[in-house]
Write a structure and sequence with these properties.
Layout lengths: L3 E2 L5 H11 L11 E3 L2 E3 L3 E2 L2 E2 L6 E2 L3 E2 L2 H18 L4 H17 L1 H12 L3 H26 L3 E2 L4 E5 L4 H14 L4 E4 L6 H12 L5 E4 L3 H10 L5 E5 L2 H11 L5 E5 L5 E4 L5 H10 L13 E5 L3 H13 L8 E2 L17 H16 L3 E5 L20 E4 L6 H4 L6 E7 L2 H8 L5 E7 L3 H8 L4 E6 L19 E4 L4 H5 L2 E2 L8 E2 L4 E2 L7
Parallel strand pairs: 9-10, 9-12, 10-11, 12-13, 14-15, 14-20, 15-19, 18-19, 20-21
Antiparallel strand pairs: 1-16, 2-3, 4-7, 5-6, 8-23, 13-22, 17-18, 22-24, 24-25
């Protein structure tokens, strides 16, 4: 059956709807930056293309260091005013912003489809989690704040493109609720229109937000080391995170640096393969382009045949393709596990890494085909990659020690518990991990030795919402842990000598209780 693009979901219609919803933020041919209390046509728009089909979309208006410095100075002035606003009024304004997000929920979600390739279900989920998550903080903020005070300066947010709403916009709202102004650098690889619309709706309600686009090299000195900054919140890879950490090293400044790690799923003395098969397919949500994805399975050699019997049918059932392709105009949008990767360059990088790994000894256990994808006839597929599974990637391959951030699984076989644990700790720290084992005592013994902040037993772990804490061990995290009350505590000041739970150069302090 020939597929068509669902009428009314095209990019031109989406952008026009955004202009109608927030004409102050969207020009006819460019998106604006927001700082100093108004929208500005500064910066040079950079060409951008949708990963969905390679077509042109709105690109980020890139500003330089001088403009960014002016924006930070204006945000610092916003912060001095906002920190004196009573909590009751802050709560009222944040609630009004959430109501506006809810009103435009489908428009925000459709922007995520086009800009970062999320299937409709997952795009809606990202927006919904942002709204419901901040609403929870509205109810809980009194007890979290107590007599704590806002920071001395605004929070600078530098985040990756994969969760513009449920991570970045959510954090900005909580930061404002706690009494801080919030600055965000638009993720360069995607999310510009979604985040711009969200900020436009929020600033109408008086929230002290700043939104600028620019390259990390140009803006980092201002957004990280600027004297007015009260806290730096970073979400991204280890290379960029390490550069931010180095820039912060001599400042003694509050920071939250969430970095990648190779999240591993260990299988040891296990037999509930029906449950496991269902879990495998869910690990492919959004093509594993998230910080809590599981790209590595560490499997007891004696169980490998049973593992494969469960794993291969699960991975072959994964559905991917064009998020807006339907059979008929009246059809609902397709139920997909993932769409394209963030861009064509990332897809090529992973194809090259797979080819290198196989050439140097990895065994290809599964290779999906683009022809099996849910795609429009003749559409551009440069950013698409079908699932791939490799057995025993060589140590020379990036797939051995780093997170691929795409639908590429690797499997490592082991013969002892010590080997299992060593293999699961290959990246010196991770955000999550899981252990599938029939004996709960054995599973918890193994879990206690895995260097991941959260380790699931016979179930995956996620970042979590609301009260659930989040962080990472080793190289996967630097600075204060977040989630629940810790997200508020990370951007407020308590009593003298306070030591926030986190992973710092001079100490590591586990939160109590820690989620395991």
């Amino acid at each position: 059956m020939t597929l068509i693009s669902k009428p009314g979901t095209d990019w031109t219609t989406l952008y026009q709807r955004c202009r109608e919803a927030a004409p102050e933020a969207f020009g006819a041919d460019r998106v604006l930056n927001y700082w100093g209390g108004r929208w500005r046509a500064d910066g040079e728009p950079r060409p951008a293309f949708s990963p969905v089909d390679g077509s042109p979309i709105a690109g980020p208006p890139m500003v330089g260091a001088e403009t960014a410095a002016a924006a930070v100075a204006a945000a610092a002035a916003d912060h001095r005013r906002w920190r004196r606003v009573p909590l009751a009024e802050r709560r009222q304004r944040v609630a009004a912003a959430l109501d506006a997000w809810q009103e435009h929920r489908d428009l925000l979600a459709l922007a995520l489809v086009w800009e970062i390739g999320k299937p409709w279900r997952l795009a809606c989920q990202d927006v919904d989690r942002a709204i419901s998550g901040v609403r929870w903080y509205l109810d809980e903020i009194d007890g979290m704040l107590g007599d704590r005070a806002p920071l001395d300066g605004p929070v600078s947010n530098i985040a990756s493109w994969n969760y513009p709403m449920s991570v970045l916009a959510h954090a900005m709202c909580v930061q404002a609720l706690a009494g801080n102004a919030a600055i965000a650098k638009t993720p360069t690889d995607g999310g510009l229109v979604c985040l711009t619309l969200a900020v436009a709706l929020a600033t109408r309600e008086g929230l002290p937000f700043t939104l600028v686009s620019g390259g990390g090299r140009d803006l980092s000195p201002v957004l990280v080391r600027g004297a007015e900054i009260g806290c730096v919140s970073f979400v991204g890879g280890r290379d960029a995170g390490g550069q931010v950490a180095t820039a912060l090293a001599d400042l003694g400044r509050r920071h939250v640096l969430e970095q990648e790690g190779l999240n591993c799923w260990g299988v040891w003395e296990f037999g509930d393969w029906d449950t496991f098969a269902g879990q495998v397919r869910r690990t492919f949500d959004y093509g594993k382009q998230r910080c809590t994805a599981y790209p590595r399975f560490v499997v007891q050699r004696d169980l490998f045949d049973e593992f494969l019997a469960a794993y291969l049918p699960a991975v072959s059932s994964v559905r991917f393709g064009h998020p807006l392709a339907v059979s008929a105009p009246e059809d609902e949008l397709p139920e997909l596990d993932f769409g394209p990767l963030i861009n064509a360059a990332k897809a090529k990088e992973l194809r090259d890494q797979v080819a290198h790994a196989v050439a140097h000894g990895a065994i290809p256990l599964y290779r999906g085909a683009l022809a099996d994808g849910h795609l429009l006839p003749g559409q551009n597929t440069d950013a698409y990659l079908a699932p791939v599974t490799l057995l025993e990637p060589p140590r020379s391959s990036p797939l051995f020690h780093a997170e691929p951030f795409g639908p590429v699984d690797s499997i490592v076989l082991v013969d002892s518990e010590d080997e299992l644990i060593a293999a699961m700790n290959a990246s010196n720290g991770a955000l999550v991990g899981s252990v599938s084992c029939d004996d709960e005592d054995t599973a918890r013994r193994i879990a206690a030795r895995v260097r991941a902040f959260k380790v699931g037993v016979n179930a995956p772990r996620s970042r979590g919402d609301r009260a659930e804490l989040f962080g990472g061990w080793g190289d996967s995290w630097r600075g204060a842990f977040v989630g629940g009350h810790l997200l508020v505590h990370a951007v407020t000041v308590g009593g003298p000598g306070e030591r926030p739970p986190g992973n710092f150069p001079d100490y590591t302090l586990r939160p109590s209780p820690i989620a395991v």
